[in-house]
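Re: that backbone. Tokens:
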């Protein structure tokens, strides 16, 4: 494992492309800290819902809320959970309605500014594998390795459907697919930090690959970058 701090791997891509699963596995293999930036935006959306705030009408209030909340990733057993102001919100932020609200919340410029600052601070202390939608383009344009994961909308919707069913939640595949496509449009067309592939990112289509195959590919690429940089192995 390298002793360097900073963003070692930036993983971007649309919802359902496998970012969280891949990033978590790579971080565990390398002994790095895994940072799920999407969960941070979901957590802010959760708190906005609790406060009765609407992104279309209460952008300033939501931005003020973003500046007050304190985010921390902690180990809970064998898992890593997101805590906000000391509350474990890992399961609450996975609700579909929270996920749908997180996209318009994340499009508020002041919100992104606050959360990007928080994300950069996390990487000042320990090396991280960070995943989201603008990590390689905005948050860490100098990341050692940038990955852009893709998958078809149908495959991503199927994965989300199975995830919700496994968690005992009701799910409608057609509705998930419609929501997925709507979110893709919002994420790719928003004015602030839209979802796009960094010019120097390695694109990996996850449709025909297993999780293990994608993880192996990312680790192989990372090891090559580390060796090129300082001659040490991950």
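Recovered sequence:
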């Amino acid at each position: 494992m390298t002793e360097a701090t900073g963003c070692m791997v930036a993983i971007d891509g649309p919802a359902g492309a496998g970012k969280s699963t891949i990033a978590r596995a790579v971080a565990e293999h390398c002994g790095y800290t895994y940072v799920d930036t999407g969960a941070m935006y979901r957590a802010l959306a959760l708190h906005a819902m609790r406060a009765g705030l609407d992104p279309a009408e209460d952008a300033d209030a939501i931005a003020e809320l973003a500046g007050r909340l304190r985010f921390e990733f902690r180990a809970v057993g064998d898992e890593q959970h997101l805590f906000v102001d000391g509350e474990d919100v890992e399961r609450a932020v996975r609700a579909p309605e929270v996920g749908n609200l997180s996209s318009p919340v994340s499009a508020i410029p002041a919100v992104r500014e606050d959360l990007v600052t928080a994300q950069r601070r996390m990487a000042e202390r320990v090396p991280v594998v960070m995943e989201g939608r603008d990590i390689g383009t905005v948050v860490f344009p100098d990341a050692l390795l940038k990955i852009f994961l893709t998958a078809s909308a149908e495959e991503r919707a199927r994965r989300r459907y199975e995830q919700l069913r496994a968690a005992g939640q009701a799910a409608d595949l057609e509705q998930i697919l419609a929501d997925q496509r709507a979110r893709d449009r919002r994420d790719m067309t928003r004015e602030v930090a839209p979802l796009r592939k960094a010019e120097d990112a390695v694109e990996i289509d996850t449709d025909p690959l297993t999780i293990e195959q994608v993880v192996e590919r990312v680790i192989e690429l990372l090891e090559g970058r580390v060796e090129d940089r300082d001659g040490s192995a991950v």
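The beta strands are 6-12, 33-36, 71-76, 79-84, 87-88, 127-132, 145-150, 202-205. Residues 211-230 form the longest helix (20 residues).
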